[in-house]
């Protein structure tokens, strides 16, 4: 039996972390993006040679986390109004 890390939202679209693995993934994502942002700001550079790779890395990380989140969610991602009996 598969162990799910997320459950679908009762309202809206997406999922919420449930066990520690889901929370660890969410927290690690925030920490990594935060550290990358601090490093970017601390570099003092804002030219495209630094900002574009930063944005590509952030988008790649977010895409990977969304992929894992969808695969580890107990149920489909769809819009919910709160009255479903899933």
State the gist of this model.
With 86 residues, this protein is mostly helical. Helix content is 56%, strand content 12%.
Task: Walk me through what this model shows.
This protein is mainly alpha-helical and 86 residues long. The chain has a domain at 21-75. The protein is built from two helices and four strands. The chain has helices spanning 20-43, 48-71; strands at 6-8, 11-12, 15-17, 80-81. The strands form two sheets. A two-stranded antiparallel sheet has the order 1-3. Helix 1 runs antiparallel to helix 2 (48-71). It is elongated, with a radius of gyration of 16 Å. It starts with 5 loop residues before the first strand and ends in a 5-residue tail after the last strand.
Write the layout of secondary structure elements.
Layout: E1 6-8, E2 11-12, E3 15-17, H1 20-43, H2 48-71, E4 80-81
Antiparallel strand pairs: 1-3, 2-4
Helix pairs in contact: 1-2
Give keywords.
two-stranded antiparallel sheet, 86 residues, mainly alpha, 4 strands
Major pleated sheet: 2 strands, antiparallel
Structure annotation, total helices: 2
The succession of helices and strands, N to C, reads: EEEHHE
Mean pLDDT: 91
Based on CA atoms alone, the radius of gyration comes out at 16 Å
Proportion of residues in extended strands: 5-15%
N-C termini distance: 18 Å
> What is the β-strand count?
4
